[in-house]
Write a structure and sequence with these properties.
The complex is a heterotetramer of chains A (98), B (487), C (176) and D (628). Chain A contains four helices and no strands. By secondary structure, chain A is mostly helical. Chain A has one domain: Helix Hairpins (Orthogonal Bundle). Chain B has a two-stranded antiparallel ribbon. Chain B has 21 helices and two strands. By secondary structure, chain C is mostly helical. Among the domains of chain C are: 1-76, Four Helix Bundle (Hemerythrin (Met), subunit A) (Up-down Bundle); 125-156. In chain C, helix 1 runs antiparallel to helix 2 and helix 2 (25-45) packs antiparallel against helix 3. The longest helix of chain C is centred in the middle third of the chain and has 25 residues, at 49-73. Chain C is globular, with a radius of gyration of 21 Å. By secondary structure, chain D is mostly helical. Chain D is built from 24 helices and two strands. In chain D, strands 1-2 form a two-stranded antiparallel ribbon. The chains are: A mainly alpha (98), B mainly alpha (487), C mainly alpha (176), D mainly alpha (628). At the A-C interface, helix 1, helix 2, helix 3 and helix 4 of A face helix 1, helix 2, helix 3, helix 4 and helix 5 of C.
Chain lengths: 98, 487, 176, 628
């Protein structure tokens, strides 16, 4: 298994990952603008963050440098915090006019 | 570093204080704690060693900005004593959130690692998202909070993309390494690096509300509680600019990114000033004025020399002092006008509260950059730097020259000073109220006003050496720039 | 191995598209879960085992559940979302598409970078990431507590308000 | 600091202190106390000026008193400095001297006004600003005073702010002045561009190094600035309206001092103007045209102060005509004598108005010479002085200008003489209608208090003997004022009249004869049988046109106000309301209105903003990539 993965890193060109992340990021952007539902907008933001995570992880593997993965870990932290706040704000909004 | 810790702990302490019915202790404790943090900060003056594996570096630059940030927060807490006086709930939380946000600000002034930049921005922002929605009975407040959150997260996405791309080409998050890599020819030609820088700058530009990433600014300023708006337009702006500058200070930005910065600057200057024209809500006006000031500050970034950070600091400080003062005035006037935020509430201010009106005028004059005020000197120094950087007419900055400030003056001021309109919007009883308030809070405003004047009247020490190569057309142009204010 | 990549890539892109376009929020959430799982697959392909785990726990386990929870709790699972005007929708697609195209144009000559280090199979395992986190990135790790603290305080503060508005009989306000 | 420097600083500082003091304590002081303080301060300034003047050595040429470093940043060095030389001393004497008299007069005039302390504060502030204007050692300091007097003029015209008309007049004055100021600022910018300095001395020394087009632009722009302040074509319409202010204001600001600022500026920059004959021609003909136009309008005005206002515009036209001919000292001479007799006329008119309890319409006056004797005598002296009756001050100054005109351009001479005839006519018409004949009003006339009549008497004496200041050779003098001014402006040295004595005598004779004939004509028309103007509608076309002030105001309204109003209205309604507002928050507003029901979890305009952000990012990205 591990061997296979190591070959995967060698076989899959980095460009592929970059393009994939860009694509996911763009879909996220389109979604944020496209949707009106707050929760789906939040999900699209998550999509954007995740595309960056993927990009960073790919770079990390390519450079053989764990730091980018630590960065990804932090992005996850921040994303979690942001989602909580994001969900709280329109909830609040809701309460105002309920 | 100990200041950072102390402020974080202070936030928690305030939260606990909030559990009991200790509301009147909140601000004093907060202020004392901040002053203690300031002392700790100053004890470490000139200890420039990087901390924590090169994550933070409390150098002179960071110290100066941290000092400014802490003092501004102290000023806002003073303001808060009165502001939160009749608020029942969540006061402790609001103070604590401001402190947490301040922690983010302190990280921005001293980061040496892109991860800390990102975390700093988030720690600065997340409490703000909540604070902006802090007005209970206001729909606008909730809406503002949501808009701010949405656009802020969106911008964070771009910032992250930028950082990731920079990492991709340099394999490092360390600022010094990245800066060095950008300078090399390989870095200059690298497409990933270019995109990375681009998106990073986009992300940070959002925080400083540069056009076209400014959309949140007016709505949020308007919707947020006044104290929070004041916090955003001073502490947050200062921190964001400090971080921005720290990010690009030693970078030899590729020409293409420079071009983009120039375009952003021009757009910001024009839009901020022009749109301010029609604003009648005070906070929106301040928002556009803040955008216009962003434009001015961005001018500094276009040609970085060893004096740039000083000018940046000077400009931000004077701007912040004047802004805090104005928001205090707004609170007073707004209260007397029963919640109206239209600038017409300033009419007749001179009648009902002459000293407050004079202080207001000074603050406005400073924001507008009228000679003999700090704001003027600040703008002047920005121009001087811009000129040194050979930026002159080519970019057409002067076209818009702080007209925002001018408009601010025109809208806000003659009404308050000309006797003709002195039939007051602030009527009889309200007038007494205003008086009473001024007695209590007036010293704060006066202090701010005095600060503005004092800073302004001593322009010479580091104002620049006359030996520098100077381009006279530019100075003629800056004379023109005096013109709108010459009334 | 390339085949795996393409498989995961296709899944993530398609599910991402579903997230954006599904009419029902629940479908979006499910699609997003699928998307995140496929991204976890990418992580495993990239030998980022630690991240793959954390990713599944944090996103699929926590965040997505939170989304579902909110949707269910607030009873938002009707496809009642008023769609935006055609103009906005076209603009949104254009925005995303143009953004992607521009980026593609930018990297059309390849990305042209060289690996910084020799390949090390240990990178991405819990050990290497953990060492890096607690040595080099200790400060951000500590400071992020402030982030969480403020998020927590804030959410509590915002959420506390509901009790003010909820009517005395305790009936959930109508969501129509 | 040397004693003289201290005095020089004191001169503007005292009125400033007065302004601050009085406005701070305006509720504490009564009108009389405030007036006395203001008057005393300006009088001390006058004394200080006299001491400066007496100790002034023309051979030394003048000195600059650097008060403080003002702008000294990166190659731009503009100090806050005062210049003491012959020119500024002349103006200072007028400002403080005539100013003190008018302050004194105001004590009586404003006695009953409850806001009198404010009035005196503003009057003092004006004096300060005017002194800064004339004493500044560089264009920027002058400009501060220049703006300051404009501001004070605005405040004082609108002093009785409860009347909307007066506010309108104040705004009009301010706006017209501001239009002119654009010229001044642009000129300054150009000067700085070419020379890198704004100091008068340095500018004048290096004037020749400015390229020809630059000089042309600078002088034209400076002159344009001067037309605003000095009420010349095309910016003269504000001055008659400015008569809305209290009469002492009209006397001080709109007759004796501020309006001569333009003349002062041109004399100050005479070196520049001497290098550009073209601009001087422009000035000459503008001045002449203004002199004639205003004089014709003066013929049919029925408001006592409006007549004087048009007369002021007309006299300023003479001064500018003189400047255009390069007769700088003649212009300054006329400034001085005009300050005397026009201040006198205004104050006397004020006394009349005061006596009649606020009546300004000369159709409701008449026969007052018996009831208010001092006023009558002084007004009479003022009238003959302005009409240029031989040996009066106005005679000398006007004849000097006419002689220069004769030498320079016979056409201008003819027009100016015609203007002089018109002046005589309308002034005597005014005199006769007010003081002769029978009284046509209702109020009971009473003589004004001593604080008002004393200044009248002093000014009357000055109006009579003022000519001695620059007594020409013809009358045994040696033109002391001209020689005095030479030390300040070298251009004056070359300004000689090369006419033979007999020619000059003949010219004087012709003017004198014309003046006397006109007086006789006016006497016949207004004293023998009092001819009052009827309704405008009954007048013949030309006369009606003149009575309606050549409809210049209407012309401006049609040319500028309406199109501008239209533009701004439409920019607002279309550009702003239909484009900008929707762009800014329209999507949200619309959503707010339409979608209040379905709004629940929607984001309003946030997504529009996001879209705009993305668009911005894409555009910038493309820019970045393309420029890479």
């Amino acid at each position: 298994m591990n061997e296979g993965i190591i070959t995967a890193i060698r076989v899959v060109p980095l460009e592929h990952y970059v393009i994939l992340s860009f694509l996911l990021f763009s879909i996220g952007i389109a979604g944020v603008v496209f949707r009106r539902n707050t929760i789906i907008i939040l999900m699209c933001l998550e999509l954007m963050f995740n595309s960056v995570n993927l990009l960073l992880t790919a770079f990390s593997a390519y450079h053989s440098d764990p730091r980018a993965q630590v960065f990804v870990f932090f992005i996850m932290l921040v994303a979690a915090a942001e989602v909580t706040v994001g969900l709280a704000i329109p909830g609040d909004d809701e309460a105002q006019r309920g | 570093m100990s200041a950072l810790i102390l402020i974080s702990v202070l936030g928690v302490v305030l939260l606990y204080l909030g559990f009991g019915d200790n509301r009147k202790w909140l601000a004093p404790v907060g202020i004392l704690g901040l002053l203690a943090a300031l002392t700790m900060l100053l004890c470490n003056w000139n200890v420039e060693s990087p901390l924590f594996a090169g994550m933070l570096k409390f150098d002179g630059y960071a110290m100066a900005f941290d000092m400014s940030l802490i003092l501004l927060t102290v000023l806002l807490f003073l303001f808060g004593i009165d502001y939160y006086a009749r608020m029942r709930e969540n006061v402790a939380e609001q103070y604590a959130l401001m402190l947490f946000s301040l922690v983010g600000g302190l990280m921005l002034t001293s980061f040496t690692n892109l991860l800390v930049l990102f975390l700093g921005i988030e720690i600065l922002s997340i409490p703000l998202f909540i604070l902006a929605g802090g007005k209970r009975d206001s729909f606008r407040s909730g809406e503002a909070a949501f808009k701010y959150f949405l656009q802020g997260s969106f911008a964070s996405g771009f910032l992250l993309l930028g950082i990731a791309l920079i990492y991709g080409s340099t394999a490092s998050f360390d600022l010094a390494t990245v800066q060095a890599a950008v300078g090399t020819s390989a870095g200059q030609g690298n497409m990933l690096m270019l995109l990375g820088l681009f998106f990073t700058i986009v992300g940070v530009s959002f925080k400083v509300a540069a056009v076209p990433f400014h959309f949140w600014n007016p709505d949020v300023y308007e919707g947020a509680p006044t104290l929070v708006t004041a916090f955003m337009s001073t502490v947050v702006k200062t921190a964001a600019f400090a971080g921005f500058y720290r990010l690009i200070e030693y970078m030899h930005l590729p020409g293409a990114v420079q071009t983009m910065l120039v375009v952003v600057t021009v757009c910001t200057l024009f839009l901020g000033n022009i749109v301010a024209l029609r604003q009648t809500q005070f906070k929106r006006l301040m928002a556009y004025s803040s955008i216009a000031h962003t434009g001015f500050l961005l001018i500094i970034f276009l040609g970085i020399s060893e004096r740039t950070s000083g000018v940046l600091y000077y400009y931000l400080t004077t701007y912040s002092i004047a802004t805090v003062g104005l928001f205090v005035v707004l609170t007073l006037a707004k209260r007397a006008a029963k919640g109206d935020e239209n600038i017409r509430i300033f009419r007749g201010l001179f009648r009902s509260a002459p000293w407050l009106a004079i202080a207001t005028m000074l603050l406005l004059l400073s924001l507008a950059g009228i000679p003999l005020t700090a704001g003027f000197v600040a703008k002047y120094r920005v121009f001087a730097l811009g000129i040194e950087a050979k930026l002159r007419g080519r970019h057409g900055f002067r076209g818009s020259d702080g007209a925002g400030g001018h408009l601010l003056l025109r809208h806000g001021d003659p009404g308050s000073l000309h006797p003709q309109r002195a039939r007051t919007a602030i009527g009889g009883g309200a007038r007494e109220l205003a008086r009473a308030l001024i007695l209590r809070r007036g010293c704060g405003v006066a202090g701010a006003a005095a600060g503005v004047v004092e800073v302004g009247s001593t322009p010479s020490p580091s104002a620049g050496s006359p030996t520098d190569e100077v381009d006279q057309p530019c100075f003629s142009a800056s004379l023109l720039f005096l013109y709108p204010y010459a009334k | 191995m390339l085949a795996f990549f393409y498989l995961f890539a296709a899944i993530s892109v398609i599910s991402a598209l579903i997230v954006v376009s599904a009419r029902s929020p629940i479908n979006s959430v499910i699609a997003l879960v699928v998307c995140f799982l496929s991204i976890a697959g990418h992580y495993i392909l990239l030998n980022a085992q630690f991240l793959a785990m954390v990713h599944i726990i944090v996103y699929t386990g926590a965040i997505m559940v939170l989304f579902l929870f909110v949707i269910m709790l607030l009873n938002l699972n009707k496809a009642t979302e008023p769609m935006k005007t055609l103009g906005t929708r076209v603009a949104a697609v254009l925005a995303g598409g143009l953004f992607f195209l521009t980026l593609m144009a930018a990297i059309r000559h390849g990305i042209n970078i060289t690996p910084a280090n020799e390949f090390d199979p240990g990178v991405g395992l819990v050990r290497s990431v953990g060492l890096s986190l607690f040595k080099e990135f200790l400060l951000p790790f500590e400071v992020s507590s402030v982030l969480f603290l403020s998020a927590m305080v804030g959410v509590v503060m915002l959420a506390k308000k509901e009790k003010v508005v909820v009517p005395k009989d305790g009936v959930e306000p109508s969501k129509a | 600091m040397v004693m003289t420097d201290l005095l020089a600083v004191l001169v503007p500082a005292l009125p400033l202190a007065g302004a601050v003091l009085l406005s701070a304590l305006r509720r504490k002081f009564s009108a009389t106390v405030a007036g006395s303080i203001a008057t005393a301060l300006i009088a001390i300034s006058f004394v200080a000026t006299v001491i400066l003047f007496s100790g002034f050595d023309t051979a030394a040429g003048g000195r600059t008193v650097r008060v403080l470093d003002w702008l000294s940043i990166t190659g731009m060095d503009i100090p806050l400095a005062l210049r003491i030389d012959a020119l500024s001393l002349t103006m200072m004497l007028i400002v403080t001297g005539v100013g003190a008299l008018i302050h004194l007069y105001s004590i009586g005039y404003m006695h009953d006004d409850e806001r009198a302390p404010t009035f005196f504060a503003q009057l003092n502030l004006f004096s300060f600003a005017m002194l800064m204007l004339v004493m500044g050692s560089n264009f920027l300091v002058t400009f501060i005073g220049w703006e300051g007097v404009g501001l004070c003029s605005y405040l004082l015209i609108g002093f009785w702010y409860t009347k909307p008309d007066y506010n309108y007049a104040a705004r009009k004055a301010f706006v017209m002045n501001r239009i002119g100021d654009v010229g001044m600022v642009l000129a300054m910018a150009l000067l700085f561009h070419f020379l890198g300095t704004l100091e008068y001395t340095a500018v004048m020394e290096n004037a020749h190094s400015i390229p020809a087009w630059g000089l042309l632009a600078i002088t034209l722009l400076l002159f344009f600035g001067a037309t605003g302040k000095s009420a010349q074509i095309p910016l003269f319409t504000w001055l008659p309206d400015a008569m809305a202010g209290p009469t002492p204001v009209s006397a001080l600001i709109h007759a004796a001092t501020m309006v001569t600022a333009g003349v002062f500026l041109v004399v100050r920059s005479s070196v520049l103007f001497d290098l550009v004959p073209y601009t001087r021609d422009v000035i000459l003909w503008t001045g002449t045209a203004t002199a004639l136009l205003a004089a014709t309008i003066g013929l049919f005005q029925n408001d006592i102060k409006k007549v004087l206002a048009y007369s002021t515009v007309s006299q300023l036209g003479y001064m500018f005509a003189a400047l255009g001919m390069g007769a700088y000292s003649a212009a300054m001479f006329h400034v001085t004598t005009h300050a005397f007799f026009k201040a006198l006329l205004f104050l006397a008119a004020g006394s009349v108005i005061h006596a009649l309890g606020g009546e300004q319409d000369i159709r409701k006056m008449g026969g007052l010479k018996g009831s208010i004797k001092i006023t009558f005598v002084t007004f009479f002296i003022g009238t003959i002085a302005i009409s240029g009756l031989p040996l009066m001050s106005g005679f000398f100054s006007k004849d000097l200008i006419l002689a220069h005109a004769f030498q320079h351009s016979p056409v201008a001479f003819g027009l100016l003489v015609f203007g002089a005839v018109l002046t005589t006519f309308y002034m005597f018409r005014l005199l006769f209608l007010v003081f002769y004949g029978t009284y046509r009003g209702k109020a009971h006339a009473h003589e004004s208090p001593l604080t008002m009549t004393v200044p009248l008497m002093v000014l009357a004496v000055l109006s009579v003997v003022g000519g001695a200041l620059n007594l020409p050779h013809l009358f045994g003098g040696h033109e002391p004022m001209k020689h005095f001014l030479e030390s300040a402006a070298a251009a004056i040295r070359s300004e000689e009249i090369e006419l033979s004595a007999s020619t000059e005598w003949i010219l004087m004779g012709i003017t004198a004869v014309l003046v006397f004939t006109t007086i006789a004509f006016a006497y016949g028309r207004f004293v023998k049988r009092t001819t009052l103007e009827g309704d405008e509608a009954d007048m013949p076309l030309l006369k009606r046109l003149i009575a309606q002030r050549w409809r210049v105001d209407e012309l401006y309204a049609a040319l500028f106000e309406k199109p501008y109003g239209w533009l701004s209205e439409h920019f607002h309604s279309i550009g702003e309301l239909r484009i900008m507002v929707p762009l800014q928050n329209g999507v949200g507003e619309a959503a707010l209105r339409v979608g209040n029901v379905v709004r629940k979890l929607q984001t309003g305009n946030a997504s529009f903003h996001l879209l705009a952000m993305v668009a911005g990012i894409i555009i910038f990205l493309v820019i970045t990539l393309l420029s890479n």
